Amino acid sequence: MSPWLNKWRDRLEAQRNVVCARARPVLSRYVSRCVLRLGRDRVCLVEPGGRLLRDMSILEPMRSPEAESAIASLLAPPKRNGLHLLDAVIGEPWVHYFVLGWRPLPRPVDWAEAARVQLMRMGLGAPDQWRLCIEDGAWQKSRFGAAMPESLCGAIEQGARQSGLLLRSILPCVTYAIAAHARAIGGDGALIQVEAGGGRFIAHVAFRHDNDWAGFVTLPLDPGRLADALSDAAVLCRVAWPLRSYVLGPQIAKEWLDGLPDPQWLAQPWNEDSA
Questions:
Q1: What residues have CB less than 8 Å from 205, skipping those under 6 apart?
Q2: Residue 73 CB partners (closer than 8 Å, separation 6+)
Q3: 3-class SS at 129?
Q4: Domain with CATH 3.30.420.40 in the chain
Q5: Which residue has the higher pLDDT, 122 or 28?
Q6: How confident is the model at residue 86 (pLDDT cuts 50, 70, 90)?
Q7: What's the number of CA atoms in the CB half-sphere (13 Å) around residue 109?
């Protein structure tokens, strides 16, 4: 590229940055975004940077009515007019994950029937009690899927509607993290998502081989024993020891990377220590 074009490109970029910097304070007064995070014993509302806005305890984990009531109480109308965006992330124990082997079905919606059969095999009752979330993927590749309670999803939608919030998505914890780090996790290896709640830790472990999902399992996690959890997961999923690993979770999990293959710590899409 000629020096003249470089000069004009740099000048346009500088002008764009000035305009964006001037518009940002104005937009921030009228546009907001927050994440609703539902875990085992707590539901909370956090800003993208991690600042906790509000939270509420769930005294009886695994009881959907109490979680739904907490969601309704937490989603209050914004104090000022504007565009207020909400993303909902549902964590353990409310979500069930699975990998669907490849079949010639072109769209995610076409995989729904296979996912419903999988739910029945997992003993989760009537499929209409669950909302499916199945990722898109390349041809001849398996699909990563999850099922969330339909009643919880409905409670989030109703709460957002009544509070004047624009609900952008309701996603399982692992699916949300995969989408946030799609470029980093594009290759082979193991993805380890650590969740904390109720005084305990669990590890969601997903394996990729030849750019395809090779297995998934959720295991209880002893603090500091991520490598042991990965070893157990590899045995259960009948896969080889991965060459690299991607880890997400609360900040304390960053100290548990010893023994993992080529570990890469990825920033959590929300602040787990607040959420």
A1: 190, 191, 192, 216, 217, 218, 219, 229, 230, 233, 237
A2: 56
A3: helix
A4: 183-265
A5: 122
A6: very high
A7: 0
Backbone torsions φ then ψ of 189, nearest 5 degrees:
135, -165
pTM confidence score: 0.81
Architecture per CATH, domain 183-265, reads as 2-Layer Sandwich (3.30)
Provide the sign of the torsion angle of the four alpha carbons 264, 268, 273, 275, taken in this order. negative
131-140: burial string, b at 16+ Cβ within 10 Å, e else: bbbbbebeee
Q: Is the pLDDT of residue 16 over 80?
A: no
Given this structure, which CATH class describes domain 1-174?
A: alpha beta
Return the percentage of the chain with pLDDT > 70, whole number: 85
Two structure tokens written together for 266: 């990825």
Per-residue pLDDT tens digits for 135-159: 887 788 888 999 999 999 999 999 9
CA 56, 57, 58, 59 dihedral sign is negative
Residues 69 and 76: their CA atoms lie apart, in Å, by 13
Q: How many CB atoms lie within 10 A of CB 247?
A: 21
Distance, in Å, from the CA atom of 30 to the CA atom of 51, rounded to the nearest integer, reads 19
Average pLDDT, the chain: 84
